Amino acid sequence: xxxxxxxxxxxxxxxxxxxxxxxxxxGPSGVGKGTLMRSLLERHPELYYSVSVTTRSPRPGEIDGKxxxxxxxxxxxxxxxxxxxxxxxxxxGNYYGTPREAVLNQIHSGKLxxxxxxxxxxxxxxxxxxxxxxxxxxxxxxxxxxxRIRFRAQDSEEAIARRLLRAQEEIQAADEFDIQIVNxxxxxxxxxxxxxxxx
Length: 199
Ligand SMILES: Nc1nc2c(ncn2[C@@H]2O[C@H](COP(=O)(O)OP(=O)(O)O)[C@@H](O)[C@H]2O)c(=O)[nH]1
Ligand SMILES: Nc1ncnc2c1ncn2[C@@H]1O[C@H](COP(=O)(O)OP(=O)(O)O)[C@@H](O)[C@H]1O
Known about the structure:
It comes from Nostoc edaphicum CCNP1411. It is found in: Cytoplasm. Helices cover about 40% and strands about 20% of the residues. The strands form two sheets. A five-stranded parallel β-sheet has the order 2-7-1-8-9, sandwiched between helices. The chain has one domain: P-loop containing nucleotide triphosphate hydrolases (Rossmann fold), CATH 3.40.50.300. It is an alpha/beta fold. Adenosine-5'-diphosphate binds near residues 32, 35, 148, 152 and 183.
């Protein structure tokens, strides 16, 4: 008789993806990722949105643990050293990272997990999770992107300038991702994302 095969007790992170699914939403600052994400969560509460960790200061109305976990640079660097992030990057002078354990637990329990992250982090996820689905949100034009960032009125002039400079590079990378969606009419863009996630 053949010996029994050992039971696979610890699936690799990539194997876990077959239980759930990982979705990456990326695109330049001001394109509407956060607003799309909020509507998506209202309409589909079964989705798991990964709350990121950042060293950026909270904007008015932002809540610790809901919008982000706001921490110091030294604490962030400690978490990086401890391998606590699935991906992390520096953006416009601040660090941002995705908590590893929470996300892997949710994927393992079969949830559809959505990360809303910038370009470098999205590239890291594509490299470590080739079966993740990545969506790049594009603005209808660069002028419109600038208007949206300014209309949001939540950033200093310096922060706006950094975001706009970075946005030009980010938009050029749109083709690296699986799907590109233009956020011109909001409802149309939201429906397009839903088609991708739930088709
Ligand atoms: N790599 C990475 N990027 C993140 C993470 N969380 C948020 N971001 C991105 O960091 C960028 C800056 O975010 P934020 O300061 O909230 O500014 P906003 O995009 O202008 O609203 C955005 O592109 C976010 O998608 C994360 O955990 N990892
Ligand atoms: N389709 C759209 N048309 C017009 N304004 C939009 C649209 N989508 C988002 N916005 C607005 O653009 C601004 C930036 O959106 P936000 O979600 O904060 O962007 P991001 O998270 O990508 O930085 C917000 O004031 C938001 O209300």
